[in-house]
Specification:
Largest sheet: 8 strands, antiparallel, barrel
Strand content: 25-35%
Order of helices and strands: HHHHEEEEEEEEE
Helix content: 10-25%
Structural class: alpha+beta
CATH class of the largest domain: Mainly Beta
Number of helices: 4
Number of strands: 9
CATH architecture of the largest domain: Beta Barrel
Length: 210
């Protein structure tokens, strides 16, 4: 039977024509799908649709902001006195976080320097420098107002305190710990401490300044 006769028989059979049409369309669909898959993607110009929350999160990630680190929680609310702490244990430069500021402290050659740097750059910095004495674990910082603030044309400094600052010091896992002296230290502790009143539980945790 010739091909022409087959086509004439298919024309007379409507069901056969429908099946043939569906088969041809299916084959074309497969070819189109393969072509689109192999074809390199093009930029539509609109990009992916993002929610407002996703857009806002991306903006916040892209905007540079000043990094403000929080003070790490200290493991205890109070530490036992460490009367065996020596001057060599606490010498050097130290760095601590207060509630809303950073503190830098240095002990060297019988003198100390303390600078409080608020997180808000508009606010003035506070300073205290002078001499110190260490008896057992009691560190007494004695300001010398004649020395004046650190020399700087960029920052404004204010005096932190004009009074002596007593602190009880100890070493804990390489850190320098400040806390309020207890009643057995035999020293007057003011109701408001210029440094320890600005930290959790009146305990300052100092790390070696890097």
């Amino acid at each position: 039977m010739h091909l022409k006769q087959h086509l004439e028989q298919i024309k007379d059979n409507k069901l056969g024509v429908a099946i043939l049409t569906v088969g041809i369309l299916a084959v074309l669909g497969v070819f189109i799908l393969i072509f689109q898959t192999m074809r390199p993607a093009t930029d539509s110009g609109q990009g992916p649709v993002l929610s407002q929350d996703e857009i806002q999160a991306f903006k916040e990630q892209s905007q540079p902001v000043a990094e403000v680190q929080k003070a790490p929680p200290h493991p205890k609310k109070t530490f036992k006195r460490q009367k065996t702490v020596s001057e060599e244990d606490i010498l050097g430069a130290w760095d601590a976080r207060l509630d809303t500021a950073r503190a830098i402290f240095q002990l060297k050659n019988g003198t100390y320097q303390l600078v409080i740097i608020p997180d808000d750059p508009i606010l003035a910095r506070y300073y205290s420098n002078g001499t110190y004495t260490l008896k057992d674990d009691l560190l007494m910082l004695e300001p010398n107002l004649d020395w004046g603030p650190p020399k700087s044309q960029r920052y404004v400094y204010s005096v932190l305190t004009r009074s002596e600052m007593p602190v009880s010091v100890l070493k804990y896992k390489g850190q320098l710990i400040w806390q309020l002296p207890g009643s057995d230290a035999g020293v007057y502790v003011p109701p408001y401490h210029p440094v320890l009143s600005e930290v959790q539980d009146n305990i300052a945790v100092w790390n070696v300044l890097k």
